[in-house]
Design a protein that fits this description.
globular; eight-stranded mixed beta sheet; alpha+beta
């Protein structure tokens, strides 16, 4: 992977859609092992899609989306804007109705001149994506990210040995090495070129890996992880889906201060 990807490019003020004046930004804090916590200023969230590194990876995701009844874009990769206020590091992800699905992804962001990587969940509403648009479906769901991040330059030498996984009720639903997704340098360059993305104030979700299990309507407890098999460490995030339309869920919802 290009070593230049691990440091932030010097660029003018952020371009493309970003938070308007007066809009409160999400407060995020990432523990960085052996270093100072990273507290990025996230003004823009970009969600990658159909970002497979090889044609076979893209074809597998296309087939999966078609089977779910989701229209496929004419070219790849694609990027969708999401509202930064959807980001959360909480233990719950609020959803509307029973039609949402989780997707494990690696997540890139910049902070104080460095690039970091963590793991996140791009929850989306399948019913809305089928009938309306991917961007609308993704903006109906919170985006949970882990509370730990690694400096990108600390993993770039063995990047392809990192592994993504999604589990639900203990069952593996998604599992693949990050080598099935475009490298961070390529992903960032595509986002800059196509969307005027600025990583100094933005957060980029990578796009997901193919499914190997089925998410059923009864699943609400999930775990996502980014595993480093070379340095034998892991970033993990457990979360629970809370359907705000279900009777009793509002009362049972944990406090944000717990």
């Amino acid at each position: 992977m290009d070593g230049a990807a691990a440091s932030i490019r010097s660029k003018p003020a952020a371009q493309g859609p970003s938070c308007k004046v007066g809009v409160e930004l999400p407060v995020l804090r990432f523990h960085v092992p052996g270093g100072t916590d990273a507290c990025p200023k996230v003004e823009r969230v970009l969600l990658g899609g159909y970002t497979g590194r090889q044609q076979a990876d893209v074809a597998a995701h296309v087939a999966e989306m078609k089977e779910l009844g989701v229209p496929v874009p004419p070219s790849f990769p694609v990027f969708y804007n999401a509202m930064p206020c959807l980001l959360t590091q909480g233990r719950t992800v609020e959803i509307v109705g029973p039609d949402t699905r989780p997707e494990v992804e690696f997540v890139l962001f910049g902070c104080e001149g460095k690039l970091f990587v963590t793991v996140g969940n791009d929850q989306f509403d399948l019913a809305v994506e089928r009938r309306l648009s991917p961007e609308k479906s993704k903006n109906l769901c919170q985006k949970v990210v882990a509370a730990t991040a690694w400096p990108l330059d600390g993993v770039q030498g063995h990047w392809d040995h990192l592994h993504l996984e999604l589990r639900g009720r203990g069952e593996i639903l998604q599992a693949a090495p990050v080598s099935s997704i475009l490298e961070p340098a390529v992903l960032l360059e595509s986002a800059r070129r196509d969307c005027r993305f600025d990583e100094t104030t933005g957060m980029l979700f990578s796009g997901t890996v193919p499914s190997i299990g089925t998410v059923d309507a009864g699943m609400s407890e999930f775990s996502i992880s980014l595993r480093d098999r070379v340095l034998e460490r892991e970033i993990r995030c457990d979360f629970r889906l809370v359907d705000i339309t279900s009777p009793g869920e509002t009362k049972s919802r944990p406090s944000m201060f717990e």
